[in-house]
């Protein structure tokens, strides 16, 4: 007696989502207030008013929402603010990633300059900084910028919660038909081979 193997296929589709950037990702990538103050003091850069930046952006988003209140319904306001806050968070995250790369380059250059046998990493002529020093200063500038954008993003997220009444989450877009383009291309190549 032979048995036929029965395969059951589920008719439900697995939907893949493209993950958005979260505020937590920004916090991991960008310097916090204490680190930004240390960078400012160590490199002679201006000390930012972190709380002021955060509060200003929070107020800005809330006032914008108030002015649009009569023209937008609740759902439209939520969608609009979702996009606005997403832009702030995405910008801060990009700055944080750029800062991280700048720090890595500064560390590499500084480690290389500690090797006395390397002539190309020695200090430049009098009045000019070494390449390693320039990279450290550039990383410090990027750190201050990333911190400022982090504070703006935190203010925007706080404003979203105030206006909408729930915590902000990044929009997760469904990946439309993953693999379909590969299948379509394969079919076109196969048909071309057939003549």
How many strands in all? 2
What Rg is obtained from the alpha carbons, in whole angstroms?
26 Å
Q: Can you tell me the number of structural domains?
A: 1
Low-confidence stretches: none
Structural class: mainly alpha
As an assembly, this protein is single chain
Mean of the pLDDT scores? 83
Total DSSP helices: 6
Distance between the termini: 47 Å
Largest sheet strand order: 1-2
The proportion of residues in beta strands is under 5%
Q: Portion of residues in helices?
A: 55-70%
The outline comes out as flat
Pattern of helices and strands: EHHHHHEH
Largest sheet: 2 strands, antiparallel
Protein name: ArgG
Topology diagram in text:
Layout lengths: L16 E2 L4 H7 L3 H11 L6 H19 L5 H40 L17 H34 L8 E2 L5 H15 L1
Antiparallel strand pairs: 1-2
Protein name: ArgG
Task: Give a structural overview.
The protein is an all-alpha fold. It has one domain (17-173). The protein is 65% helix and 2% strand.
Task: Give a short overview.
The protein is mainly alpha-helical. The chain is 65% helix and 2% strand.
């Amino acid at each position: 007696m032979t048995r036929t193997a029965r395969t059951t296929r589920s008719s439900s589709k697995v939907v893949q989502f493209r993950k958005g950037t979260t505020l937590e990702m920004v916090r991991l990538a960008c310097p916090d207030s204490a680190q930004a103050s240390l960078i400012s003091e160590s490199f002679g850069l201006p000390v930012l008013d972190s709380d002021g930046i955060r509060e200003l952006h929070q107020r800005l988003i809330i006032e914008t929402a108030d002015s649009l209140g009569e023209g937008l319904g609740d759902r439209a306001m939520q969608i609009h603010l979702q996009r606005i806050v997403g832009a702030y968070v995405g910008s801060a995250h990009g700055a944080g990633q750029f800062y991280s790369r700048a720090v890595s380059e500064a560390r590499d250059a500084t480690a290389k300059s500690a090797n006395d046998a390397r002539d190309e990493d020695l200090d430049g002529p009098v009045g000019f900084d070494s390449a390693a020093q320039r990279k450290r200063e550039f990383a410090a500038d990027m750190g201050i910028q990333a911190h400022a954008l982090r504070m703006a993003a935190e203010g925007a997220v706080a404003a979203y919660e105030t206006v909408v009444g729930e915590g902000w989450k990044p929009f997760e877009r469904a990946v439309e038909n993953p693999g379909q383009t590969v299948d379509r291309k394969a079919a076109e190549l196969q048909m071309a081979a057939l003549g």
